[in-house]
Amino acid sequence: MAEKIINKDIVKEENLVYKKTDLLTDKPLSYCPGCGHGTAHRLVMEVVEELNVQEETIGIAPVGCSVLAYEFMDIDMQQAAHGRAPALATAIKRLYPEKYVFTYQGDGDLAAIGTAETIHACNRGENITIIFVNNGIYGMTGGQMAPTTLPGMKSSTSPYGRDVQSMGAPMKMTELVAQLPGTYFVTRQAVHTPSAVRKAKKAIKKAFENQKLKKGLSFVEIVSNCNSGWKMTPLKSNEWMVDNMFPAYPLGDIKVPEE
Amino acid sequence: MKELRLMKGNEAIAEAAIRAGVDGYFGYPITPQSEVLEYLMHERPEKRTGMVVLQAESEVAAINMVYGGSGAGKMVMTSSSSPGISLKQEGITYLAGAELPCMILNVVRAGPGLGTIQPAQSDYFQSVKGGGHGDYKLIVLAPASVQEMYNFVELSFDLAFKYRTPVLILSDGAIGQMMEKVEIGEQKVRLTDAQVKERCPWATTGKDANRERNIITSLDLDPNKQEIFNQKLQAKYKVIEENEVRFEEIQTEDAEYLFIAYGTSSRICQKSIQLAREKGIKVGLLRPITLFPYPSKRLLELSKQVKGILTVEMSAGQMIEDVKLAVECSVPVEHFGRMGGIIPSPGEVVEALEQKFL
Amino acid sequence: MTEEIIIAGFGGQGVLSMGKIMCYSGIVQGQEVMWMPSYGPEMRGGTANVTVIISDERISSPIINEFDTAIILNQQSMDKFESMVKPGGTLIYDSNGITRHPERKDINIYLVEAAAEAAKMETTKTFNMIILGGFLKIKPIVKMENVIAGLKKSLPERYHHMIPVNEKAVKRGTEIVQEVQILN
Which ipTM value was assigned to this complex? Predict the structure, then answer.
């Protein structure tokens, strides 16, 4: 655990413009500088704090870069086998119908090895929230091709670019799950600009609030960058994301409940 | 008055689960154990006790639902048969690695591969030697009757929560499908969420202000910590070995030869004892009820008294390795078994005994 | 007392349920019981058989080499199980569909023309109960009143109005069972 750095000369109550939510631990994030995971973690925890449901919330960490999400989120969490987070969440929610249960998964976890668990949790309309961080690559294992890797995009297992003919086209999980009657709210967001962050937080908050309605699963994709895996600077990776990822994965609500 | 019913082994497991106050069952159909899920669905346990019953999309999902429920402190279980249990192995090693209490039922059918749906005992190695990766053990209970199928549900959960470990009931297609008289127990009330919190202070029941957050994981990237954790697991298995050995002896007092068999094979051996004794062959039976921990100590004692030991298994001979280790080569140990879904007949077993030792 | 029985015939003849009723009757009078079916794809049409053991003592093997009684209801089962009756044991059969009658001289053979009799009753579903009646006449291992109690336990409530006709069928079975003499 890193010690809290408090320099009383600098940090004065009246000078504060931003404060980290208490629901993020003081452990320094293990994500690469520039990665979107940190912001996504913060938004989820801010929502839990604003809804005042820390005691009622159980999160599921995946396998992938965010495998250690439980180190950073100050709530009860379980760490699932690769791809199985929605199965864990299903059981927890059914055994504790009044709790808030969410999974936090990457694209390899959710869209490759865990496709069956994802689709079926969505199809059963489990009253849970899935946060799906899509950066088009396997980050933790060192930049291999993911189901969401773009055509022509290079990775360590598609060194000459993803060849759609032999490797398949990018998998649009969010559009796919929106087709299922069990999903209640399906949206795609990003966290690369302040306005995107505000919109993403609003979506996450709605996805959590929906759990009380018991009308089905809320699915929030966050298109993100992986500057390390993409082998770019953080800034460049964000520009590349806007130019390349967003056309393939357009932002916005895909399925909105009728008011 | 005691309530007596005529039930299949699979039905007895399901009824026992409801009566024991189990919170959740997650399963996927496979012969010869589909009656477990069918019976539960038919009984509307959500109305009887509030128990959750869910048909999962796969065995893989089902075992991970068990992980989720168990990690949240609830009494949860799954059941399957051999090919399905192979699929569950990933989840089982995670459960062991996260020290989660739960019950897993294997109604064994013959393999390898899709094999056949007829009974076998060829999953012994998988069950007691660790079917998944890593150094772990399950407590393994081997019922030999429908009544034991019923009784072992509650026993499984007692042991699972006492030691924070998954417990496997290793049954087979014969015991799953046969019907016998079952004495039904009282309906137990399911624990309240507050009671779950008290029993499982480690579980993810929601972090309140009075405690640190609870984390359920089998991951520790620090090899030093991981080794310490492994040592702790091994120490726990040692305690289990010291305290939880269960077995039954039949006509061993004057036995000159010994059958060792569990589950269905042990039932066959009981008849073989009768047939052999009619011919003047003094044979007895040691029936391990726990396969881990194994009744090695008692076996070593008995080995001093007998001239030969015949293990009878519906397999190519798996448990025989543990028998040989237990008796320390002090007496000849032979194997007799049938494979591929064939159940040996009592007469065949006696013939094998005569052939190998007389 | 231990009675080891095989009941074998076609699926749909009520082979499995006859076994269950025997077991329930045994339970009612405080005995140990065991019912072990053949199961699997062979359940889908074709032959069905079930081993039933009723005993005053703890029951050992569910799989046995030879039976005290074989109740045989089709030719395939005759071919398979006639030889598995213990010497001095009992074979009970219905001649309907039988092309080769039993031949052993070291066992007691009885005929129950249940299919023909069932055709005369209100419902042919009583077939297996007529057979059961024939069996109980020869081997009164469970009392008639306990069979009725067993029927009540084994039939779902919605079929309880069928109990009187089943009772009648069991009684009819006891009347029509006849010993078969094998002539040289």
Answer: 0.95
